[in-house]
Amino acid sequence: MSKHNAVAPLPNTDGHHTPKVTTIHHLQQYKTQGRRLVCLTAYDYTTAQLLDSAGVDLLLVGDSLAMTVLGHENTLSVTVEEMLHHVKAVSRGTRHALVVADMPFMSYHGSEDQAVINAGRFIQEGRAHAVKLEGASPRIQHLIERLVVTGIPVLGHLGLTPQAIHTVGGFKLQAKTTANAEQLMQDALALEAAGAFALVLEMVPTEVAAWISTTLKIPTIGIGAGPGCDGQILVVDDFLGRFQEFQPRFVRRYAAMAELTKAAVTQYREDIQEQHFPNPTTEAFALSPEVADALGLLPYQSAPASSG
């Protein structure tokens, strides 16, 4: 029996239970029921375990790890191999949530055959349930159709598309004009028609995102797109207050992990320097009296802490 089949259902806040493994069909049901989708990014095994056990519906292994984990200035530098490394870790830590692998820059911009191979690696090697692509060009639409036929579910992404950051001129609000909003709607409908199971809308005016959400049959997942979407997603390092370089307006920090971590390390440093850690009785291992006596060793006594 796989670990997925052995997991007990998780309770929702409304008293109902989520399925043992969330599928794209469950997400569609949630939209029909009016139940909002809970989504976060994850990049490692431990974080995935924690988020999954808390009842998150969808975990995106986002190419945002280029910035939050690897220290790059944008998402463009992360490679397929680096993404696969993190997708594998998240998949191993997940039992309930739908795991989506973000296909990085240039992994699907060359030949279509290579794009299909790369997407397949995220499913076969990474054990993800789906992949995410940015944009809605005719080429992307055709690629989505081909991936879906192959058996690879696709999450679309419109609005601000970080992989096109140099083209769009920075992290700016999208679809602000009538023409741009109408084009975004047409792109969203095209991705739905191509077979995308859901759509991320990033940095889109609230009214436009709500308009698209009520028009599409597939769920929308907002990030900086207001409360009218069918679900919401945040970067986990923003959500937990770990990423300190900047805070987008649409981020609500639910914890202050940077401050907590620095305070913990400061206390750890002081405990080591003052010889309060480790405690020789409760946090270390002593020889048996017989062995200590045979070696001529006395019980350990802490030396006075250095005044310097």
Describe the oligomeric state of these chains in a short phrase: single chain
What portion of residues is helical?
25-40%
3D shape: elongated
Order of helices and strands: HEHEHHEHEHEHHEHEEHHH
CA-CA gap between termini: 59 Å
Q: Given the helix and strand composition, which structural class is it?
A: alpha/beta
Within the largest sheet, what's the order of strands?
Answer: 1-2-3-4-5-6-7-8
Strand content: 5-15%
| Mean pLDDT across all amino acids | 92
Number of discrete helical segments: 12
> Sheet with the most strands?
8 strands, parallel, barrel
Write a compact overview of the structure shown:
The chain has 12 helices and 8 strands.
Please describe the topology of this protein:
Layout lengths: L23 H10 L3 E5 L3 H9 L4 E4 L3 H4 L11 H13 L5 E5 L9 H13 L5 E3 L5 H13 L3 E6 L5 H4 L9 H17 L3 E5 L3 H10 L4 E4 L7 E4 L1 H4 L17 H17 L15 H7 L13
Parallel strand pairs: 1-2, 1-8, 2-3, 3-4, 4-5, 5-6, 6-7, 7-8
